Write the structure tokens for this entry.
Amino acid sequence: MTEPKTQGAAASSGAVKKARDGKANATIYDIAKVAGVNPSTVSRALSKPGRVSAKTQKLIEDAAAELNYQVNPFARALPTGRTHTFGLIVADITNPTFFDIIRGAQTTGTQRDYTLVLAESAESAITELTSARRMMSTVDGLILASPRMNDDDIRTLAGDKPVVVINREVEGVPCVIPDVRKGTGEAVRSLAGNGHKKLAFVAGPARSWMSARRWEGVQAACEWSRLEAVRVESSKPTVDGGREVARDVRATGATAVLTYNDLLAIGLMQELQAAGIVVPDEISIVGFDDIFGADFTTPPLTTVRSPLGECGSAAASRLLELLHNGGGSTETLRVETELVVRGSSGRLLPAG
Amino acid sequence: MTEPKTQGAAASSGAVKKARDGKANATIYDIAKVAGVNPSTVSRALSKPGRVSAKTQKLIEDAAAELNYQVNPFARALPTGRTHTFGLIVADITNPTFFDIIRGAQTTGTQRDYTLVLAESAESAITELTSARRMMSTVDGLILASPRMNDDDIRTLAGDKPVVVINREVEGVPCVIPDVRKGTGEAVRSLAGNGHKKLAFVAGPARSWMSARRWEGVQAACEWSRLEAVRVESSKPTVDGGREVARDVRATGATAVLTYNDLLAIGLMQELQAAGIVVPDEISIVGFDDIFGADFTTPPLTTVRSPLGECGSAAASRLLELLHNGGGSTETLRVETELVVRGSSGRLLPAG
DNA sequence: TTGTAGGCGTTATCAG
DNA sequence: CTGATAACGCCTACAA
């Protein structure tokens, strides 16, 4: 702790006792009394350094330390409207995809001395909007991760206070999104290099903005690499969803498959293996995201890493930047994706 | 500290203010004006229903709705000191163990209309204490998940505002901890039933309160089931730590192993399998916690489930209860653990 | 039941 | 550079 050993003058020490006896937390009034100055001077000294003579500055700082003073955020927020706080709303706390985002945002927030308040929308657009509205009055800015509400609602929120969106592109609002091109390109090229001719893409939720982008990326890359690409729909982007889609994937006759996310890939692999199919000898599987646990499987999952942590972190940075510089551009920030080759993909083995 | 000078610029500041003044948030004064009553009446009508005549109540509510009024949390917090907010500090956001805790706390908090503010201690006792202190002034109560600070500091915090501890028992502070007995009992009995005679326990961090409890549980259960129990130390409770400890585990000659947590179990299994050892035919592995991804492995991990989500949820409930009922008991709440049998444990196969 | 007045801890606006 | 003093929006005795 920063408990100063250097006790002030005896007089000051007495004043401290007196001030403290009053109530729980010391206020700038207590400090003012101890330092022998006006409360407003204390406020100045503590909030905007340089506006006060060095002498009184030190006097005040010492008194503050002695009293173990800490600002009352609410009192401060009242006149200024600013709290050192920002909100993060994720679609589903259960989904590991968001863990990294949360972590990233939390970490860079803390670094800049901001506090993170967290909420979940439970995949509901209404809940999401409600939470967002409630939060707006409490925080300085908001990060929306994979928001489910519609563009207009997002823009409305953004008109009120700074908002940054992750994993979706909204016109007029600063966004942070993984750019799938590099990663999908690498994945498809790797697959093509291993002799695959036909690739199946297991799509995510129909309304998912990201799923559409990934499918586009896959198609483009396949065209370039002269691979045939077919699309398979999934019922839900989970391990179970992956299991369920195994049959359809098999039916396509593709020897390589890229899934919308890792969960699907893992479920798919489990089901395929349960059916006696050897991965990657008979079929290569590549996931998307590189979530926690992607390397727990046997073989460990090859996947296109989406730097979620970086997204969270970047979004937080962007937000804090907006908070400080006022306006700023609403240009969207793209972070790179990359292929992480592990065991679930590779050369096709001659049957037999 | 990083306050930009632009903030002080009269032009920018004025513009912002003006823009906000245009559609500034309605206050109880505005409502009072519209409804033709006194602000204090509005306050009463909005905060404690029943203290106002039905007629004016409706009048006020209509006006509030019309003005799209929403309370200013800071203004409210100033006189009352309460914010409808609680903090959660976890040792490591990276650790999947905490995901469920966060989720549980967040969910039940939201249900009761409380907001969750999240912080991480990065496994540092000092950081933890600092965050805790900072938070204390902002929140109504605090949940400490696997805290690293010492008991006295926790008690001091608890003396200030309600505090609930998860995964550790602190005298005089309400705690929520998984009770290992049932789960370890089931695990050991299951192992014994499958013909195992010797069991190795891979311990967690030396200073971990939980690791000690688990080892005790294992010892007790083994004694009861007439199994020989040996303890093996690990360098760190992670997948890598699990890999590193494989050699030592093998050296004990045990045919069954229980690990401090799932991460260790997964690493251990990977290393063992890499060495050509078949799980569970040659050795049974049982983890602890049942974290996300525990069933991604091949074979899926048998584990003693620690209801982390429930812990988070229970802790939040406990906290809100304290917040509402004032004092209350500091009795610790124990939640049950249970064995989840999956593929990594089973009957020993005759060598050959 | 409703109005009056004072206070919560800071910041902001003026004077001096 | 520093000291008064008024907001900030709401709550709560205390009166009426």
